[in-house]
Predict the 3D structure of the following.
Amino acid sequence: MNGRPTTRYKATILLGELHKDAERPWHGVVPQGIDMVAEVWVDGKGVPVRLAQAAGATSVVTDFLSFGVPVSVAAPPDAETAESGA
């Protein structure tokens, strides 16, 4: 994966089970009957290389290219942000 040997792990997350948790009202956030399949590829040092997630018609793949590299992050202006209702 991305030029590195990796081990792939795969799990199915039963999102429907979240509806049974009275402490966290997931209704409306996670549709009932949808499960998530998550796969992660980890290199020999235990560092994730890729994370792939799929639930229903939505899928996301994230490649992790660098760890321990300094970054500079600035918050966006208030006009470019929004509150989440979730």
